[in-house]
Structure prediction request, 129 residues.
Amino acid sequence: MSADEIRPEDAWPLPPAWMWSCQKCAELYRTMKRVQEQTEELRLTGERGIDYDPMDRNVTSQMSLAEHMAAAHLELLPAWDPDCATCKSHRAAIAREAGESDRAAVIARFGNEHRARHAFAPPRAVGLM
Ligand SMILES: [Zn+2]
Ligand SMILES: [Zn+2]
Prediction:
């Protein structure tokens, strides 16, 4: 596949420079890309793992990175994207639950993990969660 066949919503953004100065970010990012390349290869060769779903591992590796980023680098996360419907619904949920409850904290964390994904995942994948 040549570069101009990749649609913008499928393009992997270049991760922000600060991620490379964190060993954990760099490690989780490399794992995610490796899993993603393996999934791509399986898709192209038509082979499917029997005991695991490669799409699952893909999502899991993205979630681990987003979880770490939201926990360790809150102040560096990308701003809410005004064009992203998922950002909008997270913001609305956070506004509804404003306060110090456990539920508010969980909702805020989900929102932050979503924002983190904007830094490293293709727009189409980011919109899913
Ligand atoms: Zn980090
Ligand atoms: Zn978003």
Summary: The chain has a mean pLDDT of 87.
